[in-house]
Specification:
39% of the residues lie in helices and 17% in strands. It is an alpha/beta fold. The strands form 2 sheets. Strands 1, 2, 3, 4, 5, 8, 9, 10, 11 and 12 form a 10-stranded mixed beta sheet that branches. The longest helix has 18 residues. The protein is globular, with a radius of gyration of 20 Å. Bound molecules: ligand PBG and zinc ion. Keywords: Heme biosynthesis, Lyase, Porphyrin biosynthesis. Its EC number is 4.2.1.24.
Amino acid sequence: MFKRFRRLRLNETLRNLVQETTLSKNDFIYPLFVKEGKAVKVEVSSMPGVFQMSIDEILKECEYLQKIGLNSIILFAIPDLKDSVGSECLDDESIIARTIKAIKEKFPNMFIVTDLCFCEYTDHGHCGILDPKTQSVHNDKTLEISALQALVHARAGADMIAPSGMMDGIISTLRKTLDENGFQDLPIMAYSTKFASGYYGPFRDVAESTPSFGDRRTYQMDVANRLEAINETLEDEKEGADILMVKPALAFLDIVRDIRNETKLPLCVYNVSGEYAMIKHAGLAGLIDYERVVMETMIAFKRAGANIIISYHAKEVCEILNRN
Ligand code: PBG
Ligand code: ZN
């Protein structure tokens, strides 16, 4: 006697009944890149389908996103002005603040997450203030300006703040700052496990944030380290993070599962630019069934234990879900 597993795969209805993991439009956050100007919509060559957009174009995009049932975005800004300390993003009239206000005015229930970092705003392209002694990012000075940036986002009307610079103590710093300034109800999504990854390449094209020297290995994590990932994540939870994250996603699903088993908090994965580019270009070259591979990849994130998926595919996924 042997067990007949195929009994439960006989037809689609039965297969759907026993399906363990599902995808919904509610699972997704869609990244948007805002740039100064009017009527600017520039496609990123390494990421077909992803654009740098001026605020007026971002508003059109938000209208479409809401129409297809995609209600959450994560915003990145590409400023005209860059300097050594990223002053642009510390101003209430910064491009990201103006974008948040413009979106909230037209689409008050669009959920806006803001990426909080300095690499898009510094002329050297690193994620904070440089320590002249080490030529690496100065942790505690960067915490101070991160608190200021968080308040700019909060006052503009952001719904959730996601610090991505990997400075130690960032979560407790932001929680304290937000609480002391009347933003007790503003959640923080920690980029709690962010690896120093080659998969960020195309993002740095679109965000114009490639470091002018060196790399990010003194603040982002070593891709070889599993215990360190769990350790950092649990520390962010202790410091008061509301949602945790693993980034990149595809090559790190073991970490997603480990963290899922260690915490009760919601867990997000960031399906990053290089992952998008690989599947997109393979699809455009006719090498794979693009939509099928995209959906398989998204289900893999959920199956590994993620509740929330940040993905450049999010718009296409919602369009596919609407068709079915
Ligand atoms: C900024 C930031 C990066 C990404 C998100 N926030 C780039 C980096 O750390 O170099 C990567 C996103 C992607 O590759 O899609 N710190
Ligand atoms: Zn950064």
